[in-house]
Amino acid sequence: MPSQMQRFGISDEDDGEMGMDVKAEDEDDDDEDEEKNMETTSVVDMHGGVLSVNSRYMNQQHYQDQPVTPVGGARRCRPQEEKERTKLRERQRRAITAKILAGLRRHGNYNLRVRADINDVIAALAREAGWVVLPDGTTFPCRSQVTRPAGGATNTALAASVSQIPAENAPSTSLGCISPGYKCTADYSSSQSKTAFRPTSSPYDASSSGRSHTSAMLGDGDELLNDPLLGVSVDSVDDRQVLDAPIKLQERDFSGTPFVPVFVMLPSGVINTKCELVDPDGLVRSLEVLRSVNVDGVMVECWWGIVEAHHPLEYNWNGYQMLFQIIREMKMKIQVLLSFHECGGNMGDEVCIPLPNWVTNIGRSNPDIYFTDRAGRRNPECLSWGVDKERVLSGRTAIEVYFDYMRSFRVEFNEYFDNATISLVVIGLGPSGELRYPSNPVKHGWQYPGIGEFQCYDQYLLKSLRKATEIRGQPCWARGPENSGAYNSRPQETGFFCDGGDYDCYYGRFFLSWYSQLLVDHGDQILSLAKLVFEGTSIATKISDIHWWYKTASHAAELTGGYYNSCHHDGYASIMKMLGRRGASLFFANSEIMTGIDHPLDFSESIPHHPKGLAWQILNSAWDAGVAIYSQSSFPYNGEDEYTYILERAKPLDHPDGKHFLSLTFLRLNSLLMERHNLIEFESFIKKMHGHAGSQYQT
User: Do 621 and 613 touch, CB atoms closer than 8 A?
Assistant: First the structure.
């Protein structure tokens, strides 16, 4: 028997803790017969409340089936062997519970205490599903889920035999007076979760399948239930009560909400490689249409490969001068993206704009100026951060090249800064203008959802690694991981990223810290200079949303991209701290609003991706550091569902600090957007972003 107990990993020290549990087990065994005869059926919707309760024998057995206690309070004697079996069953249950808790801590990002029990597990799952669980166990739906405007309707089947529910367990209709400290599940979860705030569930989070005809079986009986307030009706079909709830939702009223300007990014090819404006007349017509629907401005990409194309320090801004003049005449604002990377070869790229010719000429003789993978393949999409302080670019360092370019832009368009026509300057810090390593290049065969590869094998970054290992006193660590897989590997296929892999050993933690710190230092150096150049104007930088494999312990795709964001380490806090120190904002292009909608990536359930979880971790990390957020859509989107998603994300309902996006940049101007029916929806969307009431969406 002791050997069987030890098999479940429970020591004898826990025997004392089991005393009360074993006594309860004895009493439960006495009552098993009564429980088996109880015919109680309940269906609970975690997002809406109790669906139905059928308890035909609850009241009768409550009084008729009371267990008879022998005279004098004596209990029947139980053999010692049966008590040992009871203890063994309890140990087995605890062992299973321990495994469940370990899995949730490791893979679910649940903040559970070390000695958590099954009640903590149930409470964590209930909170994630949108319920409020108070410390004493009282549980009820979040106020934002159960409060519905008069005349509105719900797509959640909400009906119950309320008279059969004990009064002490029935939630109050006014949830605001239950507990001032926990208005909704987001308020309670925020004190324990990794992120500071989780958005409350909204009616718009329902999937498209959830908008189909909704009905629920309510149990036996002839009584019909009709609720005019909820718009719910119950009919009888084959002696069963069927609840039919209308599916149309009353839209959230955005009138009076903060003003969030809306920008539209112009096509990458609006300026050709000769720095000439392409189709000025067509551009004017498009801008007139955008202005007619109250678009606040446009975003323009200023390509390093066009402006400084042929010789160092020779800048040609002619095409951009004409473009900015047209935009100013339209009385629209301008957001500028200074792009120090090439365009072409990645998802969404429509034109090919390489790095300046004089840079590529240097790269032919010294390919180590580019990022390099373990196989020695070079990536000319942008310069390696190893040359930030190396004078390999015609006598200048990369930092000096970027500074000279930014200073030339400021001098050329100084009048646009003085009259605030240019409202924001986004500094490109890596591939696609994002602060990350080019760990998933399509030109090298990467396909979603591959984990990517580390990009630290050029001679300059390897020299930095060797220096770091010498300081650490471990010169044998001057190498990249040898078991990290290939571009299209999965985490569990590698020895470095698998559960319990080398990413969490001493060498792995050292390497990932060095790798991610290079990213932070690169951004810090360039943004410190940008702050000087663009004094008086907001500056920002882009962070990528590498959301695939987010639900794994290692977060492999984020690690290769330079974000040390494993389950044991916050990879974004140091970046946000750096942005706050330099007075820069976050320009976040995220794809979480596209989940559940037509998406160019395969968001199948087989991939442990979590765009929403990653987005809210990054956003809350920025807000906690006092960093303002500008948002950009990751992919073109048009239509009701997409607009509703971005509205809810741009202006979170009941955010405890009233945080919201400072602007939204729509990616990008295209023929689909210019169609009449899309423009009507776009105009209604802009009104809501501006804090005005818009026309209701039709289901």
Answer: no
